[in-house]
Amino acid sequence: MELDVASLWILIAAALVLLMTPALGLFYGGMTRATGVVNMMLMSFSAAAITAIVWVLWGYSVSAGEPAIAGIIGNPISDFALHATPESGLLAAGFAGTFAMISVAIISGAIADRSRFAPWLMFVPLWVTLVYAPVAFWVWGGGMLSADGFLGKIFGEAIDFAGGAVVHTNAGVAALVLALKLGQRHNFHDRPQPHNTPLVMLGAGLLWFGWFGFNAGAATTIEQAGLIWVNTLAAPGAAVLGWIMVEKMRGARPSSLGVASGLVSGLVAITPSCADIAPWAAMLLGVLAGAGSAWAVNLKWKLGYDDSLDVVGVHLVSGIIGTLFLGFFAMPTAESAGGLFYGGGTGQLVAQFMALLVVIVFSAAMTWVIATVIEKISPWRVPAEIEIAGIDATEHNESGYQLMTK
Q: Which domain of life is it from (predicted)?
């Protein structure tokens, strides 16, 4: 079979999404202390490496295989190591695997500067297998939240084109659970600042670049691809303005970290809705997401949970905003009556809310169980003295910077 244009685009899009996980390592690495940058980057790279193996062996089967266990998951045995997937289907499996990589890597930002590496290596395959893959099956693989699933038949099918619930809400909830599980850093109340803002900005720029593959990779027509491209351009731009607006209202000056975080919040928010809202609505969504996440990141100081790199404030909050936004502003299609403001009634909003509720409850419960089991095997936290000195030297025998003086 010759390589057609559509398949070629998926190849390119998958490569773009693959780039996002190392980009996330740069983004997170710059936000940590200088003595934890190696550990932070390795958490992203190891997430990608381990997920690649899990996805080929059984992860893709769980997320997209024949229904098993009363349709709760795909059968991991029926297509073990993708032996039953035709060559034409391997491209879809590979593309889906890059989504799993970035999803679990996102979680690592919540436990920066205090997590041992060994528990993280155990967490990645368990979370991808027991949390991410089942949720992906429910929404994208014909599971219970799809049109043919039992919740989809009751409440209506949720729209999640590229992962507002499956990726960002799912990972954001898991990040909150791990942050609570590990507790606060020793210097939490000092509000530690990023050690390398240029690294943060570079990571954010590469994430935006890769996100065009993330959102548009599954486009089926040139018209849909064009809409997705413009929305993925407009929403993060508007989100930066929304974030800056909140910073100004607080009396603070616009910051590079705020611009980078606002950009990512807009990208997160447009992910579920990129193919189903108009460009003007994408800009409105961006402003709401940027402002909402800018407000939400301060909650950790008030409530006392130590989400080190604002995974909860950015990914969970903007993921929820973007997913619910469809209930109001989704354009009518042949399959959907559209959102509330398009005359579609409350049906789509109910479907979006129920999908979020199911994902949040499931992700929180399963992540807590996984984290607790791992804690019994290998404690998550490094000793206090190592955390204060920095974990790169003890966990990896490396340093992010070799500063030589004569």
A: Bacteria
Residue 400 near residue 194 (C-beta atoms within 8 A): no
- pLDDT at 1 exceeding the cut of 80: no
Residue indicated by tokens 């996100």: 211
Question: Over 227-240, what HEC string results?
Answer: HHHHHHHHHHHHHH
Beta bridge partners of 73: 68
The confidence score (pLDDT) of residue 280 equals 98
In angstroms, how far is CA 277 from the centroid of its own chain? 20
Length of the chain: 406
**Which structure tokens are listed for 25?**
């390592």
Question: In Å, how far are 24, 47, 102, 197 from 204, measured between CA atoms?
Answer: 8, 19, 14, 10
Q: How far is CA 171 from the centre of its chain?
A: 5
Kindly list the structural domains of the chain, giving each domain's residue range(s) and its CATH number in brackets, ordered by start: 5-396 (1.10.3430.10)
Task: Return phi, psi of residue 400, to 5°.
Answer: -70, -25
Report the chain's terminal Cα–Cα distance, integer Å. Answer: 62
What the block records as the tokens of 237 is 């731009």
Q: Identity (one letter) of the amino acid at 361?
A: V
Chain position carrying tokens 């849909």:
224
What is the distance between the alpha carbons of residues 158 and 164, in angstroms, rounded to a whole number?
Answer: 11
Distance CA 131, CA 106 (A): 14
Contact 312, 303 (CB under 8 A): no
Average confidence score pLDDT of the chain: 94
How confident is the model over 58-111, as pLDDT tens digits? 999 999 988 888 778 999 888 888 888 888 789 999 999 999 999 999 999 999
Between vectors from CA 130 to CA 129 and to CA 132, what angle results, nearest 5°? Answer: 70
Concatenated DSSP letters of 44-104? HHHHHHHHHHHIIIIIHHHHHSSEETTTTEE-TTTTGGGTTS-HHHHHHHHHHHHHHHHHH
